[in-house]
Amino acid sequence: MTIRSAAGLEEPRLLVRGGNRLSGQVAVSGAKNSALKLMAASLLAPGTSVLHNVPDIQDVLTMQEVLEYLGAIVEFADGTMTVDTSGVQSQVAPYELVQRMRASIQIMGPLVARFGQARVAMPGGCNLGPRKIDIHLRGLAQMGATVRSDHGFVEVRSDRLQAVDMFLDYPSVGATENLLMAAVMAEGTTTLENVAREPEIVDLCKFLISMGADIEGAGSSTVKIHGVEEMHPAEHTVLGDRIEAGTFLIAGALTGGEVEVTGISPHVLDLFLSKLRSVGVRIEENTRSIKASGDIDSYKATDVATLPFPGFPTDLQAQVVVLLSIARGVSVVTENVFENRFGFVDELIRLGAEIRVDGNHAVVTGGRALTGAIVRCPDLRAGAALALAGLVAEGCTELRDVHHIDRGYERFEEKLQGLGAEVERAGACCSL
Ligand code: UD1
Questions:
Q1: How many Cβ atoms sit within 10 Å of the Cβ of residue 13?
Q2: Is the peptide bond before 310 cis (omega within 30 degrees of 0)?
Q3: Residue nearest to ligand 1 atom 5, measured at CA
């Protein structure tokens, strides 16, 4: 049966037949949440920057469109991207692109720093709940910029940003990145306190330093940025994607198999790995790889609360809920980062999970046998989690709205197939 969207186009679907134990090695791609910000940072200097290990995912292609819209020349092949920003003329990010990908707002800091202005469509709500940008804007205003909003756009202007001492109300990843990029060419030394400490922020700082920035304290909660007169293009390799790594480790654990992810340092997943161990998953850590294996019958409930890094990543919350659905006992999962991140629970219940959501808590009664059904991917990480559920559900699970998964996972089904999963795109393997 051909599924057509309202526009008449065939919608991509993913068909997953459950029951196979996954085993083998999978190399993680470059981190989405780093690559997008490095692409934005390349705007800080005229000339050509080179990024390696860039994942071939939809969000990266959208950011490429954003940079091209501004006038940059971007080439992307075999994981290497060159961004020539010499011809950048425009400082406007239109609604169509920002609405498609919120990370588009990360061009604000670099554009104001280099050109003295940026006009960016306001992102509005998204399916993780309202995601505000007040910390980004308050920070830029404190640095002396005028911030105005009209017709759904926010416009930031400043001849030269001034250094400030600033305490962020919340260690927001996006705000930390925007303010870091704004401060590298500000006049004087900026001190940012209570900043996000995610590994992707450290990766961004490394790239900025190789472009000529003077930054101290990357990866700690206080960062000092000594403003420089100008930045130059640079070359950088994107760090591995810890969220992709965590997703495949759960795939291995869930199916009672043995999966090793390579190209990632275990330290970026410390708390996540310790939670998997509490469930009963065996974890082996090496310098640049992690292996997960286990016996499903021995898995037991554990409580999880998401928090900014080094806490449990919100981007692995949905995947761990799937694991807890099959572990024996009652687990409480608390989402502290985003307001509306349990949208996938109703879909998981369709597969047989027993979960009750109360505000930002999900009470998961585990030990359930899942059965395949048609489900919709409500967002990127939840989509991946539903695919994982399909791996252990009896029969076939059909995922709709797979474009969410394509935003952030490179060759998702191919990598799963490489581990022995029965999964294909819009084929006809299952009769539901
Ligand atoms: C980034 C990642 C996202 C990840 C998240 C947490 C990208 C494109 N997205 O999102 O995948 O899940 O980090 O690791 O890299 N907030 C405010 N005011 C602000 C900024 C944020 O109230 O000015 C709130 C948000 O509404 C949210 C929380 O802070 O509730 C966290 O947001 P933030 O850390 O900024 O995440 P993002 O950068 O949006």
A1: 17
A2: yes
A3: 173
